[in-house]
Write a structure and sequence with these properties.
The structure holds 2 protein chains of 2 kinds. Chain A has 7 helices and no strands. Chain A is mainly α. In chain B, strand 1 and strand 2 form a beta hairpin. In chain B, the strands form 2 sheets. Chain B has a two-stranded antiparallel sheet. A two-stranded antiparallel sheet of chain B has the order 3-4. The chains are: A mainly alpha, B mainly alpha.
Chain lengths: 213, 659
């Protein structure tokens, strides 16, 4: 089981780098959808036995992160008819390299902090921190409002990985609440994106600086 | 019973404005119904508070709130004593507002004003009966925020918005300080309930911290001298009946807080009483000095509030020192003066603000130097204003004299009895007498400039007497001023019940005074009647005009020229800015003269400091560019720095050091 778990995490990390490096917004959405599905599977692999609440939680997570949110976003993209390119501040290759460097150094550092703390924990913490940092990079380096939403989603995925540490402590209701939160915020962001597009006839968040007092 | 009545009154007053809004703007009787509800509730509250003064202290759990332990309320003599001005001015002010701020004339703001008037009165009522931090703060914030909305009634005017902002800042600093105070209170006592701290239960350092936090928090609200900066602007910009309740009642909530904290803390060191006494003396003197230098009648009255808060604090300081040296007589005299002056000030200051509002309503102007001769056209307002002016100057036979008498005796009697600790007290007595003299001078200036002489400027609206609905509240206040002044021995019974001591009448011969005062009053009334009805009418002639052939009313002695003598005397603190054109020929051209006085703390200290801070920190402006990416980057950097603290640097270097 640990092996499956770890290989899933490695796949998630690889998807991070892919998200940093891909040019089209559509493919970033697909990558993040795939990441969401993998995340949904993770808790099932973590424990030996399967319980019904866990199954429900996983299925909801998979359907929201893997299906509903990507669909909402693709729908939003079609609505606003934007150029389907990401437009980063730093290029795709440098940002992928930056992501790789971050992944490596986080693993190096956390290895020192959490040395000898049980088996699977070793992998969860660095994976979570890496995903959060990649989310930040996406947020900081992308100009289009919709690609910032992707950054936000990746960030949220990182936090989700962290919560796996507490999988036994967190009740089902809290997890559902977190998912609802995420869904609602994405929903609102896509609406806002639409309005930004209407008001500024562009999704470039640099134009929002005119709102500064 | 008393407490229940007060709760009903508070609920009624809170709902009054809501009822008005539900009735809608178009409804003709909307303001009348709202005002009626406020007045009925106020009468209930006044009955409740009057019962409360003479009955035992009670507490009651208003509702249950698991996390903090319930909203505890209660009533004792002190709360009831402060509730009386709250409901009195709350009711009378609403009545006055019906004439002063008619809903038919002020369509856009009248409902807002009524709603927040109700909230303000209810908030003050709630904070006075609060016995738990939760219920206390609910009332305190309700009061502070509604007062802000009321100050901003005329928010279309630049000056009003500015002073509203200053008020909002000041009141939040006050609230934050009190938050710290109550957090510390909880840390020290383990409870949020107002319960006295036992002697020796806390370290002196903790007690000092508690006291000074309370002094700043409550002192800001009370408007004591270095922290009074919000007061003149806010009181001048608000509608007059709002100024009346802000100045007459809301400032007293700060005083109530200081008294309550004094009762809860154990025996104070002499430092506390000394500081209160000193602040009181400074506020009193500088308040009246700045008042004399004002040209705006409402700003002038606002500075007089600072002065009167000073007098109240002098009384409170005597009582604090009395606790330190275990002298029940000092406590009795100091508290009697402090409390009675709270009542008196709420009566005559509201009367004066109502009077000023009456003049403002009629002339549309606040500047003293362009008024004049209004007394002939508004005789009732002039008479009532005169009563208020005599009362605030502390002249017998009116009420201001009685409270100042208690304080004078409290200051002088200890040293007369040879108490070695009382030298500090005696040193304040001359300051107090100076305050009284300057206040009298100041009101001579106001009264003569506004009501006597003849009209100075042509651009005043045609002056008319105010409607009865504005004169009735003023009349009630004036009657109360006279009643307390003539029959002080009955008011003393109230005071003795509140401070739980009955030695006042044996120290101060109030019964004899009452007889003299009554005689004095009757002779004044007699003189007035004789003057009015004697057959020979006084003849109207011009004053001697230096042989000038064509005198005009603009040649009259103005308020500014009257005040100038004092302004020169106190120029070391006033720093009047005078702009004038020089006279340079025998027959000079038109010349101009203008003078104004900057606020001591706001204009000369706070504004320069804030401007300097803003300039010094303008470099940081480059970080606020409005790009969300940058902001996220700042968060990322902060997260990375925080994470970097987790890295075990030491362990990395240990191997090298060992080798």
């Amino acid at each position: 089981m640990i092996n499956i778990f770890n290989s899933l995490l490695v796949m998630i990390l690889a998807l991070n780098l892919l998200a940093l490096g891909s040019r089209s917004i559509l493919s970033v959405i697909r990558i993040i959808a795939l990441q969401g599905i993998l995340l949904g599977i993770l808790p099932l692999v973590l424990n030996e036995g399967l319980s019904i609440p866990q199954l429900i939680a996983s299925l909801t997570a998979i359907s929201i992160k893997g299906v509903v949110i990507p669909m909402v976003m693709i729908h939003a993209m079609k609505n606003i008819r934007i150029k389907r390119e990401v437009e980063p501040t730093i290029g795709f290759v440098p940002s992928s390299i930056l992501g790789a460097v971050i992944t490596g150094s986080v693993f190096l550092l956390t290895n020192q902090i959490t040395a000898g703390n049980g088996n699977y924990v070793n992998m969860i913490i660095p994976a979570a921190i890496t995903t959060i940092l990649v989310g930040f990079i996406l947020l900081v380096t992308r100009y289009k409002a919709i690609s910032q939403v992707m950054g936000y989603l990746v960030l949220e995925n990182g936090i989700y990985i962290f919560s796996l540490l507490l999988i036994e402590a967190i009740p089902l209701i809290v997890e559902m609440g977190m998912l609802l939160d995420l869904f609602v915020s994405i929903f609102i962001i896509t609406i806002i994106t639409n309005h930004i597009n209407n008001a500024f006839s562009s999704l470039d968040t640099r134009r929002l600086t005119t709102l500064k007092e | 019973m008393a407490l229940q009545l007060i709760i009903v009154a508070i609920i009624g007053i809170t709902l009054s404005g809501v009822v008005g809004i539900l009735l809608g703007k178009g409804f003709k009787w909307e303001q009348a119904i709202t005002t009626t509800i406020v007045i009925i509730s106020s009468v209930l509250g006044l009955i409740g508070a009057s019962i409360g003064i003479f009955s035992e202290a009670t507490t009651l759990k208003l509702f249950y709130w698991p996390t903090i332990g319930g909203a505890l309320i209660g009533l004792d003599g002190l709360s009831a004593f402060f509730l009386i001005p709250v409901f009195l001015i709350g009711g009378l002010g609403a009545l006055y507002g019906m004439g002063y701020w008619k809903s038919s004339e002020h369509r856009d703001s009248s409902q807002k004003l009524q709603l927040f008037w109700g909230f303000l009165v209810a908030g003050m009522g709630l904070l006075l009966i609060g016995r738990h931090v939760f219920s206390f703060f609910m009332g305190w914030e309700l009061m502070a925020i509604s007062a802000f909305v009321l100050v901003m009634t005329e928010d279309k005017e630049e000056e009003c918005r500015k002073s509203g902002l200053v008020y909002l800042l000041a009141t939040h600093i006050s609230t934050l300080t009190l938050f710290v105070f109550f957090a510390l209170w909880h840390y020290a006592t383990g409870s949020y309930v107002f319960q006295p701290i036992a002697e020796g239960a806390l370290q002196p350092g903790m007690l000092n911290a508690l006291f000074f936090l309370a002094l700043i928090g409550f002192g800001l609200k009370a408007g004591m001298m270095p922290l009074h900066f919000w007061l003149p602007g806010a009181h001048a910009s608000a509608p007059s009946h709002v100024s009346a309740i802000l100045s007459g009642v809301m400032l007293k909530m700060g005083i109530y807080g200081l008294i309550r904290v004094g009762l809860l803390l154990p025996t104070p060191p002499s430092l506390w009483g000394g500081i209160i006494l000193t602040i009181g003396a400074i506020s009193g003197l500088l308040g009246v000095v700045f008042a004399i230098a004002q040209h705006d009648i409402k700003k002038l009255l606002a500075y007089h509030s600072v002065e009167n808060i000073g007098i109240i604090l002098i009384g409170l300081g005597i009582a604090y020192l009395g606790r330190t040296y275990n002298q029940p007589e000092w406590i009795a005299l100091g508290m009697a003066g402090c409390l009675l002056h709270v009542w008196n000030h709420s009566l005559f200051k509201s009367l004066l603000f109502f009077g000023a509002g009456s003049v403002l309503h009629s002339t549309g102007k606040r500047n003293l130097d362009i008024m004049g001769g209004i007394g002939k056209k508004m005789p009732t307002t002039a008479l009532l204003f005169l009563i208020g002016a005599v009362a605030i100057s502390g002249i017998p036979p009116l009420n201001g004299f009685i409270s100042e008498l208690f304080i004078y005796i409290g200051l002088i009697r200890p040293i007369a009895l040879g108490d070695p600790n009382a030298i500090g007290l005696a040193m304040v007595a001359p300051v107090l007498s100076m305050i009284g003299a300057l206040a009298a001078a100041c009101f001579v200036k106001v009264y003569s400039a506004v009501f006597l002489g003849s009209q100075r400027s042509e651009d005043l609206k045609p002056v008319h007497e105010s409607p009865k609905i504005m004169l009735i509240p003023m009349g009630i206040l004036a009657v109360l001023c006279v009643a307390i002044g003539v029959l002080p021995q009955y008011v003393t019974l109230v005071l003795e019940s509140v401070i739980h001591q009955d030695i006042l009448l044996s120290i101060v011969p109030l019964k004899t005074y009452s007889a003299f005062s009554f005689g004095f009053l009757i002779s004044i009334v007699g003189l007035y009647i004789w003057m009015k009805f004697r057959s020979k009418k006084p003849k109207e002639v011009l004053t001697w005009d230096c042989g000038y052939a064509k005198p005009t009313s603009r040649m009259q002695y103005t308020a500014a020229s009257f005040g100038n003598g004092f302004a020169i005397m106190f120029d070391w603190v006033l720093h009047s800015k005078v702009h004038r054109t020089k006279l340079n020929a025998v027959m000079p051209d038109r010349v101009n003269f203008e003078s104004h006085v900057n606020e001591l703390v706001l204009d000369r200290l706070l504004k320069p400091v804030f401007r300097w801070t803003q300039n010094a920190s303008s470099w940081f402006g480059r970080f606020q560019q409005g790009a969300s990416q940058n902001y996220i980057l700042y968060i990322l950097i902060a997260v990375l720095i925080l994470m970097a603290t987790l890295v075990p640097y030491k362990e990395w270097f240990v191997p090298f050091i060992k080798n």
